[in-house]
Amino acid sequence: MGAIRHPAPVRGDRVRSKAILFALLLGVSLGGCAGGDFGRTRGDFVNDDMHRWIGIEATGSVGARASDFQLTDDERSLRDMAYPLIEPPRSRQAWKTVFGDYQPIAAPWRQSPPFDRTAYGKMLVDEPHRSHASRYAALNEDIRNDLTRFEPFKFTAMRVVEMDRKRAAALKYISDLSTRERADAIGRMEENALIIQWVQQCLHRRASSYRWALERLVIMAPDTVAADADRLIAELEVQAANLAIPAGPAKGHVLVSKG
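The structure assignment produced for this chain is given below.
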């Protein structure tokens, strides 16, 4: 008896088989990226309020109480946009940013550890670069990134401030307003104000750090590109100074720095 011959698979079958295999592999790889310990889905991939802690930290650092109100869309965006501006520049690798490996940051009013304006410059100088031109390029890139991120934050902050003005005006007209509701409303307004102040403080600190780094690069390897960095730093200083900030419970808290 002759051997049974199976029909050779047509090209379409091979293509479909490869597509199915690719889809399975892609699903496994994405599942691994989003997985936590023992395959559990990491909360920061599914939690819209992953930066809510910023407001809680801000109020807690000055002895105030955070609000229990849910975040509005603008308030959530304010916190999301604040994070890359309060996080020290070049503090972690880019892949950690992509996969949401976030770490809580202490508010500046806690003073521990005190701000060190020399840390960024020392790190930039110590990083292995092929030339000083690449150090200048890295400095300019960091400043431009801050300016780019700040623009949408500023407009979101303006919307939140305007919303809180209306909230404050409405408090005296709300009937049967409970003590807890009033406290939550006031707490949320203070919380939002503190976040905006936090970002402003960090922008001033970044500008100070960038200027210290630029001055070291200039004496180590003078270059005409230093003028571009100086212009960008000046622009960042102006943007930080012009950020409209409502009065908040942080008033009177002195910030300490070194370097």
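Interim note for the steering committee: Residues 179-220 form the longest helix (42 residues). The longest strand covers residues 115-116.
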